[in-house]
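Discussion board: Methods & Data

I've been asked by a reviewer to show the raw model output for two of the constructs in my manuscript, not just the figures. I'm not sure how much to include, so I'm pasting the format here to get opinions. Each protein appears as its amino acid sequence followed by a line of discrete structure tokens. Is this the kind of thing reviewers expect to see in a supplement, or should I convert it first? Here is construct A:
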Amino acid sequence: MIGILADSHDNLIALRRAVRLFNDAKCSLVIHAGDFVAPFAARELRGLVCPVKGVFGNCDGEKPGLVKVFQDMGEIVVAPLVFEHDGLRFLVSHLNAPVEGYLKTRRETGGKGLLSTGRTSRGCVSQALFRDQSYDVLVFGHTHKAEVRREGGVVVVNPGEAGGWLHGKSTAALLDNTVISKAGSRFRSIDVEIITI
């Protein structure tokens, strides 16, 4: 099980609830798709019994402080964050534009991914990501709208807003990455559930 959240915006109560949810679900990893806002909020994730991977959001102003908090619990980087966990390839971004751009180019190139990498001076991905890469799961935040969809074999997840300030509902996601054996063959089932915390 993998826990996913974004846009916590300093809501300590919601972060504590998310930590309980993820620990109860025995998550092997938690992903935060940006906008902690301040390091004191990120410290709440120290209660997790698994590592955390995260990206900076557009409201994360105190980046050195966030990096320091993450030193003993995982990693936080400027997006995109690309990694493999439990046999799945992830791409994590705060903004939705890189995710949508990747999917659009993937459709246009017959599934080959994006063609080049570029960054603006603000660190945002402006063009494509990683030639000929394919991802199993794309995670983003920023819009504060929970969303789970499949597109061309790729699972796209926006866990919504953990902070709950914009829509009045704090949400997170649980990704169940189960390997299923059936009639002598093995396949992977990826199910994602959005949960109110």
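Construct B, same format:
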Amino acid sequence: MTENADDPRTPLSLEEVAQAVLDLCAERTLEDFVARFLDHLRRWAAPSAVLAAVRDPAAASGWKLLPALCAGSGPLGAERSVRQMIDDVPQDLARPSLVRPGNEVPGVRVRENCVVPWSCEGESGVLMLRGVVHPHPPNLADAVALLCAPVWPRLLGGPAARVEASVAELGRLAERLRDDADRQVERLQSARTPVVAEPPPEDPAHAARVAELELQLAAARGAMAGLREERRAEAEAEAAAARAAARAAEEGLAAARKEIADAGSIVARHIRAREELQQQVTTLEKALGEVEDERNLIRGEASRLVRELEASRAAGASEAVTGSTVEPVPGSSETVEVLRRALAVLRRTPFLPPTLRVAVQEAEAAVGEKDERPGRWLRIAVLDRDTAGLEPLAAELESAGLDVKIASHPEELALLLKTPQGRELDAVICDVLAFRADQTVAGIFRGWEKDRPGLALYLSFSRDSPPEVERAQRVPLALTKGRFQRPLNRTELMEMLEPLRRPTP
């Protein structure tokens, strides 16, 4: 019989095999036990025939079939062909295996045979599944071997069965002795003479025979009691072993399910982390595009201002030669003032690409802009949804000796913390609604603490806005140094940040 090649099936799981063994052990009658066993074999392998044989030196072929476990369309004279089928197996019968018949037809896939050797209570034999359907589980032979573990003791009889047979034999022997004793008593009573003045003397032979029978009866009863006790002890030991095995199987199943659940949670975490990273990359790419546009605008404006300054200087030089007393006032141009404000905003940007940073420096040199701010005693970053409204506050804080960076997206701060400037940062003040709804504020804070240990994290929100208050309450207090009321106030900020002041060198 042939089958078309398909993709292989998945292996049979240990839980499925263990459940099948438990179902077999739950059957009380031998007929139901064998029927369930054959049903499992058909469901797993769909063989064309099932043959079970035991070694028998007295048989002509050396093998004897077990009819209870034989099913399907076996060959005629199966007892004589079992040895030939086993001799065709390319390897020995040390372990279960799947073998392909030797008489294959080119271009045709022949069904394999599953051969499972077994041994129980001094008996040994083989279970053969002829014509296993393809595709089949790769661990089919091992699974069938595990499924056969309770079959051979049940079919051939274990210690408990032998004890029951011995008890029944002793019972029959005791009944025979009891019948012999009753017949002897009846014979003695019938032989007793009628009423006489003096009873005849008891026949010593009969008395000895009765005593001997009574002793045999007592010995038989003692042997029966001992065998019953032995049978009860063995049955209890087997039941305890079965309960222990079932408990161990349940514990193994529970452990396997727990490992599967843990693996699923780990995969889910990795998927969420990957999605968050993809969102961060998208946001950063968008921010980088905006920065590139701003860089191009600043470069163009800087070039125009350079040309205007050179023209004004040339004009001033010519006026000096002609004796004019009018001198150009530096920085009086409205365009130069706008450029200075733009440069201040760029200085407060958390992260600038190297090319943009060079362009900013060129623009500062072109307009004669120098950083004349006093020494910085604290470096902070502010994450807020309204960055334009924070510019005046940032100017006030810079005049008070703070170095301020302003960001509108959490990803900007994430990039800043991975730079040398980020390692010099002392505190971060975050607007609770500057984070997207799909972002976890507590998880982002923990990631920032790993990148910059000792960083002071503050949260800002409006206490009059229920959504802001509710989201702020989901952030553990242990993750933050303090919390500010929005809009931010310079006095409150200075009071809260004063304990972080760096020592003056």
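Answer (T.O., handling editor elsewhere):
This is acceptable in a supplement if you add a one-line summary per construct. For B, something like: Confidence is low (pLDDT under 50) at residues 1-7, 323-332.
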